[in-house]
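Dear colleague,

As promised, here are the two records you asked about, laid out in our usual form so they can be pasted straight into your sheet.

NAME FIELD: protein one
SEQUENCE, THEN STRUCTURE:
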Amino acid sequence: MKIIKYLLIFVLLIGLGISAWIYYPQYQIHNMKKHTVEASKKDADISYLNYYRDFKSSQIDFLALGDSIIRGVGAEENQNLVYQFSTKLENQTRKKIVFQNEGINGITSAELLTYVQEGRFDEEIKKANIVTINVGGNDVLQMAKGQNFQNVFQSFNQLQSSFSKNLSGIADRIKQLNPNATIVFLELYNPLSPENDMYSLADKLLPKWNLKIYQVAGHYQSSIVIETTKVINGNHLQNLSADGVHPNSSGYTAISELMINQFKHQYRKEPV
């Protein structure tokens, strides 16, 4: 009976450990979002949107770096994320938005880091007032390709650690070249249908991945993380294009509206 008792305790501890591994990142993200808004209110009383409304220049330069989401795969050119956000920001600020779309299909965070460190985007970064970064999806796709559930699970921690270092390196370079730029990070979303066998695993791993984005963003005074998972998820599959991975025009509209909403309600802290 003692053996059975110890086995039950052991199984219970394992279960609690797995639950903490899965759900604690969600709790951390929630606290980081709350802390960011509350701390910002104490330090400054100006939202990102009001900051750019009051911008001394009549022009705002917007640079978008990243993968096919930035490029706009899944929608027409005038319906992609960069174009839609620029148009909405222009309407809200009454400033001219000059955007540069440097999205590269299939690029990983390591490849983007290399390009940034080599100086490929130096001139664009130096003059940009806003820099959006969306990268990491291809890191996961490359890892998961042809692998089973167990291999994906085992490789995940190492992959997200590498991703975090790459994203930090990209942001460091941006701030080195342009300390006043606002960096806008986008969450990674789960494009799978709840009926897909891998949906549950992806949904559990996603908060752990996005937590790294929030942690990186937390190191920079003027940065914001867009909560993409609110509008692209298993309950909003209508926002995905026919390939089942990229947003369609309505998906990019939803993300761009979310960006504007967060610009309205999140407060900007001046770089030190």
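NAME FIELD: protein two
SEQUENCE, THEN STRUCTURE:
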Amino acid sequence: MTVSSERITRRSLASPRNRTTDWSRFDAQTDADVEAAARSDPDAAPLVEEEWFETARIVEPPTKTAISIRLDRDVLEWFRSNSDRYQSKINAVLRAYMEHEQKRSL
């Protein structure tokens, strides 16, 4: 592999970096300026109004219960080999089965 020396930038703590942030312009911005910039940025998250905060509520995911379960070795190994979050995947499969059976019994 050939590495071009033109692409390597060497820095040390002793050598200052070229900073491009205009902090005086940043400090001079008003809240209205910041809001206008955020609204015009297509990648920015949508802004929320004060009314949203009045009706907002914290929703926490349901807690999980730790259990001991006996699984066939090949089943467990298959889930482990396909995901780092294999326990969550097993839970998702069990949930899908549960919801299917609940709909069937209606």
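A couple of things worth noting about protein two: The longest helix spans residues 86-104. The chain has five helices and no strands.

Best,
R.
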